[in-house]
Structures are given as C-alpha cells and as structure tokens.
Design goal:
single chain, 54% helix, mainly alpha, 27 helices
C-alpha cells in the first residue's frame, strides 16, 4: 500500500475532477509513472492530471485533413529524473500543447498542506497550462480564447497591408484589369439591385423599392471598401433576405405595427447579435465547413443565376397572350421575343468569346488583353446599341427611378416619407402605430434569424473567396468583416429604411475572377489544368463599383436604354464562369462517361473507387436539390428555412458517412472533401 500511495491518490484526484469540473475533451488512458518526479515543494500532481485530460484544439481550417476525423490523444513521456519543469511568467507551461503525465510525489504534498489546494487552483480547469498563442500568430479561423481576440488578429493581419490595398490597383500593370473589373461589376451589381428593388416594392406594398435597394448596395459598398478585411467580397440584396423581409412585413401587418419602424428595432437586435458573434470569435466555427458545404452553396448560387437568365428569356414568350394567332399585335410580340432572345444569348456568347480571346494568336498581346478584360462591358454596349437600332421593337429595358426620393409615402397624405425612420414617430408610412415595448423585444426573434443569415452568407462567401486554389496572399478577416456589418451596415439600413445587404456569392466570385490571372499547365497525368497565378488584391475596384452604383441614380436616362435581356446574358455568363473548379460540377459530368477508362484523371478519380465516388456525388447532389427546392417554395415562411439548412450541412456531412461506414472510408472522404 505504501509503495502505491501516490498512484492511488492521483486516481482519486482524477475522479474528483472528472465529476466536479467541466471536461473539454475525453480523458486519455491512465499512464503509469516511469519514475518519481524530483523534489519540488510547489508541485501538484492534480495539475498534471488535469494537464493530461485536455486535448489541444485544432488551430485552423486545414485543407489537407478531414475535420470530422476524431483526434487521438497521445501520452507525452515524463521528464527524466533531474529535469526541471519550465514555466513561463504566468505560471503556464512554457511550450504549448505539452503536458506531463507524471503523477507526482505524494510525500512532497504531505509536507506542504497547501500544495493540494494550490494544485487545484492551478489546474487547467481554472487556468490554461498551455501557453496561449500570440494574437499575431492566430489563423483566420482559430479561436483565440480572448475577448475580441479574433478581431484583433484580423486587424494585425490586415492593417499593415492597408496602404498596398490601395496602391496595388495601379502598380505592376494592374490598372487595366482593375478598371475593367469596375465596369463589368457595375452592370453585374446594378441589375440585381433593380430586380430585387422591384421585388421588394411588390412584396411590401412599396415600403421598400428600387431607389432604396440601389442606395443600400452603394452605401454598404462604400463602407465595406474602407473598413472590411476582405474587400473582394461584394455586398448586396439576396434572395433569402427578400424572403425574410416578406415574412417580417406580413408579421407587422397582422399585428398592425408600422413595418419601417419595426425594422429599426430588428436592425438593432441583428446588429447586437452580429457584434457578439464577432467579439467572441464565433466565425471560427466555420472551420467545420469543408469543401462539401462550400461547393453546394457555390453551385446553388450559380444555378440560380443560370435559371434566372433563362427565365427572363422565356418570359418574353409568355408575357403576351396574343403572341400567336391572327391578333394584329401578334407579329410585334413575336418580333420582340425573337429579338430579345438573340440579344440575350449573343451577349453571353460574345462575353465568353472575349474571355477566351487571349489564347488566340490574332492581333497583338495588348489588344488581346484589352478584349479579354473589357469583354463583358463591350458586349453590353454592343447589343444595347443594336437594340436601339430596332427601336420599333419594344424589348423591355431597365426601369430606373426618375427622382431620388423614398418609395414609401406617408399614409393619407401622398407625400414621400423622410429618409430617416423614427422608431418612436407619430407619422408612419403604413398608418399603423410604432412598436410597443413588447413588440420591440419580439423583434429579437426574426432578428436572430437575420443574423444567422448574415453570418452564413458572409462567412461562406469569404470561405469561397479564400480557398487555397485561389492563391490569395493577404488572407481573410472573418471576424472583422462581421463587426463592420454589425456596427455600421445593419443600423444604417434600419434607420434609413433600406433593405439589408449581405455577401452576394456570385457577384463576389465574379469580382474575384475578374481580377485573376490564370495560366494553363499540365498535371502529372498529362491533362491541361488552369491554375491561378495572381490576384489583384485591392480596395479600389470595390470603391469604384459602388461609386458608379450611386451615380447611376442620376443617369437613369442613359441606363433605361439597356435591355433586360442583355443583362440576363451577363447573369448567364456569371453563373457559368463560376462553375469551373467546383468538384461537384466536375463529378456530375462523370455520370455521362460510361467508360471509366476515359474519366479525366483528377486526383480524387485516381484515389477513390467508382462506387464511393458516385455515391458521394449523389449524396452531395441530393443536398443541393433540397436547397434549391427551398428557394422555389412560394410560401416565404418555408423559404426562410433555407439558411438554417445550410447551417446543418456540416452536421449532415459528418453523420451520413458515419451511418454508412462500409460505403466511404476515411481515405475516400479525405480525397473527396479536402
């Protein structure tokens, strides 16, 4: 008994700590001491037991490993006899992640009656015995363990690069690429703003409209271009945000509360939740989102743009019931549908031809570069001019507001409301009273859903931008970007009666791709692959795009000459060009190749057998189909489930393979989802 007293006492301490204190990780196997710890009156065996119980957390988003693979706990050998235990100034272990498994010398503790209690106080459950990593060394998706540690790390990472964020647009021959990107993205952002503005006006009885949507997008872009950590991300109105707005409007109508005043409180609650998420590093939870989730989200947005473009063209044939028959208007309607279809499709084909023009041998390198960079803008101008030549054919064009005044009018007066929304005011646009105290607290519930939507849109889009194969040099700033939205964008949108803006995935990816330089190379299997060699990472394009967007309010006479079908061709271009590099898209094409010997020799094709490869594609495609179905449900109360289903995708990715362990091995999942 005397020989094993120290071991028995240590086991008792372990059991006590297990039941009395929260456990951050499963305990490792008990390791018998090889030697007695050298004499140290301040040594606590409880501290070392606690050290052995804690498993270090994953530092960041590792693209080369499966984040759902369970970590193994390894016992660290005890220090040799006579080796000193090194501690830093704070009393913590000098080397992070190392903990001794030696159980200590009970005789020393018996000589020092306070040693036991000192050991309890110094255990890892009261303070970390693992030295915290300096903030400057934190990865973008790593928990700092400090208040606002992630935001501070983002600032330390991005502030030294702030000057180069402005100068890089004009150095190294980047001026042409940045100017072309501004022109292209101006049209790519203007058309959705007009489209969503019209949808907001219809859904909210003109409480919100086109003018508010354009101002909201422009204002958000100006703030984001100066203060964000990842200025390649574009903010704007989105489909899920429209669904949330419709639901909240119907709630306000049913409870007879003024919609715009209630949105102020919704914005303030949403701002509070978003700021808390940023300050407590909750964006680090996104490291569980693997390529599985990222590609479903990216593919979904591309499909929405592609389907939306074709829907615009098909409506030309369905909008006028007298397009066929002997009606006198039938020939004009047929001409409008035919010309509109040609304009839309040729805009797409011309933009794609210009994009591939640098690979041709005609003309000089400078001309090829000009055509490639300004291809989309040239396509818009060319086919808008052709449409103007056929003025007698009434092809629908952009609907721009004639004057810069709020869409909503004060109830019963016909006068436009003021730009500032007073949440306690007497005069309202709807005629209903402003919210009472009970409704103010009730708005926290829809605001929480809006905050979740903003969190997912923002972080998933930034994850897609910062993917390893995009070869970015400056890194992301997930926490800082959310903090900017919470402090500035959401409250301003609420108080001025503007639609909320979130990260727009396809617009952001189009912005990124317009600033890319790609080169073709051969892989180890002899196939030609395109790799990103450089991206112009700067803020000038973001600022220029949204300055032009605000200036468009005074250029309505010119912009109303642009046909909607031409911008539909641009949407088709944006959706199609966002698909290359999405492995789900590549794996879907494998279903059409019946001979496996003719499969393209991608890495995952050579590493995974056919059956698990195709089953994983089916599994991922099924999740995509459910998401797309949710976007098409006409009931807005069901459509708001969309962002929450995206939030559950990492959990689905984790659980389904575990339910079918015989289908996918860990090696298969690592190859398919790294």
């Amino acid at each position: 008994f005397a020989e094993h007293t120290d071991q028995i006492f240590a086991r008792v301490c372990r059991s006590t700590l297990t039941f009395a204190l929260p456990m951050p990780a499963p305990a490792p196997p008990f390791v018998e001491p090889a030697t007695a710890y050298p004499g140290d009156d301040n040594y606590s065996s409880v501290n070392h037991v606690a050290d052995a119980l804690v498993t270090p957390a994953t530092a960041g988003h590792d693209a080369d490993c499966d984040p759902f693979e369970e970590e193994s706990v390894r016992a660290v050998p005890a220090p040799a006899v006579g080796e000193a235990r090194v501690e830093d100034d704070g009393g913590e272990a000098g080397e992070a992640g190392k903990s001794s498994t030696v159980l200590g010398d009970t005789a020393n503790m018996s000589r020092n009656s306070s040693g036991f209690f000192q050991g309890i106080k110094s255990s890892k459950y009261m303070r970390s015995s693992k030295a915290k990593k300096p903030i400057s060394e934190l990865a973008p998706l790593e928990f700092s363990g400090r208040f606002a540690g992630g935001v501070r790390a983002d600032l330390l990472r991005r502030v030294p690069l702030y000057v180069s964020d402005w100068t890089e647009a004009f150095t190294g021959g980047n001026c042409m690429k940045t100017t072309a990107s501004i022109c292209f993205l101006f049209f790519a952002c203007l058309s959705p703003a007009v489209t969503f503005g019209a949808a907001f006006a219809d859904a909210t009885d003109k409480q919100l409209g086109v003018i508010e949507t354009i101002i909201s997008s422009g204002m958000s872009g100006l703030i984001y271009s100066f203060l964000s950590g990842q200025p390649l991300c574009i903010l704007g109105a989105t489909g899920p945000e429209l669904a949330f707005t419709v639901v909240f409007y119907e709630i306000c109508q049913s409870m007879e509360v003024d919609f715009l005043a209630a949105r102020v409180w919704q914005a303030l609650w949403c701002s509070l939740f978003t700021i808390l998420v940023a300050l407590f590093d909750l964006s680090a939870c996104m490291k569980v989102c693997t390529r599985f989730t990222e590609e479903i989200f990216s593919f979904l947005i591309s499909i929405i743009f592609i389907v939306g473009a074709f829907t615009t063209l098909i409506k030309l044939y369905l909008a006028d019931p007298d397009i066929e028959g002997d009606d006198p208007a039938a020939p004009a309607n047929r001409a409008k549908a035919f010309l509109g279809t040609l304009l839309g499709l040729f805009t797409y084909f011309t933009a794609m031809w210009c994009r591939a023009f640098p690979k041709r041998n005609e003309t000089t390198p400078l001309v090829r570069k000009l055509v490639a960079n300004y291809g989309v803008t040239l396509s818009i101008l060319l086919y808008s001019g052709i449409n103007y030549g056929f003025r007698d054919v009434d092809v629908p064009c952009l609907d721009m507001p004639d004057e810069i005044v709020p869409t909503a009018t004060l109830n019963g007066t016909g006068e436009s409301r003021g730009w500032f929304v007073n949440p306690f005011g007497d005069e309202t646009a709807s005629g209903y009273d402003t919210p009472g105290v009970g409704f103010i607290f009730f708005t926290a519930v829809p605001a929480l859903g809006l905050a979740v939507l903003g969190y997912l849109d923002q972080n998933l889009t930034t994850l897609l931008i910062n993917r390893k194969d995009h070869n970015l040099k400056k890194g992301g700033a997930y926490h800082l970007d959310l903090l900017v939205c919470g402090i500035f964008i959401y409250p301003i949108c609420g108080f001025f009666g503007l639609p909320f803006t979130h990260a727009a995935t396809v617009r952001s990816m189009s912005h990124l791709m317009s600033l890319m330089t790609r080169e073709d190379s051969k892989n180890e299997h002899g196939q030609t692959v395109s790799k990103v060699t450089n991206v112009v990472e700067q803020r000038v394009t973001h600022l220029g795009i949204h300055c032009l967007l605000l200036a468009a309010l005074g250029l309505s006479a010119v912009l109303t000459k642009i046909p909607k079908v031409v911008l539909a061709g641009v949407f088709l271009y944006m959706g199609v060009t966002a698909l290359p590099g999405v492995q789900l898209y590549e794996r879907l094409w494998l279903w059409l190749i019946w001979d496996p010997k003719k499969y393209p020799q991608y890495d995952y094709v050579t590493q995974v057998a056919r059956k698990p490869l195709h089953l994983f594609t089916l599994f991922q495609f099924s999740c995509l189909a459910v998401l797309y179905a949710l976007t098409k449900v006409p009931n807005p109360y069901i459509s708001v489930i969309f962002p929450f289903f995206i939030a559950f995708l990492p959990l689905i990715r984790k659980l389904v393979p575990k339910c079918f362990p015989s289908v996918w091995s860990k090696e298969d999942l690592k190859a398919l989802d790294k």
